[in-house]
From TrEMBL:
Gene3D superfamilies: Cytochrome P450
Keywords: Heme, Iron, Membrane, Metal-binding, Monooxygenase, Oxidoreductase, Transmembrane, Transmembrane helix
UniProt protein name: Cytochrome P450
A GO MF label: heme binding
Annotated organism of origin: Linum tenue
Cellular component terms (Gene Ontology): membrane
Amino acid sequence: MAVIIAAADTTSVTLTWMLSNLLNNRRAMAALKQEIDEKVGFDRIVEDSDLENLTYLHAVIRETLRMNPAGPISVPRVASEDITIRGYHVPKGTRFFANFWKLHRNPEMFPEPDEFRPERFHEKEVKVDIYGRDFEYLPFGTGRRSCPGMNFGMQVVQLTAARLIQAFDFGTPFDLPVDMTEADSTTLAKAKPLEVVLTPRLSPELYRQA
């Protein structure tokens, strides 16, 4: 049960941040919507088989995970022996954490790190993957203690995000920008709930099928 709750929490947090970033970056929202409209259309709902062709969607999600990782710090590690790291002595038994949030905002790796720009992944400006092989980008951790639900979680986020963007035009009350303040929590939630205005884009029959 704990695994299911953790998966649901991190998935909802990621989707919330993705929508928040897109609402504050209408150019990226329009580009994503155009991709889905061109590659899927308006006559059916997005399916799993469509996801591999939605490359800008992948970039949007990766950029969201860079800026707003659901798990901003790693699970704790313990030094199994005395070690020295860049001149710092770390005694055996020391517990330490990796700060993924800070890592993902390294300007040497990600120029203009506070700017939401999916193109850095879509146009291969940054050559890193999500699987923990590149230590500059670790949204799911790395090694044996990386997130066991990574592939399933990515599939759920991608399909849910694609269907939401296909089905609705998103706006905010009074067309105000989204407050991006982060909450002080284990999973990196928003401090204030996301409020949106939805306008259907598809025929009523498709909503009954979804």
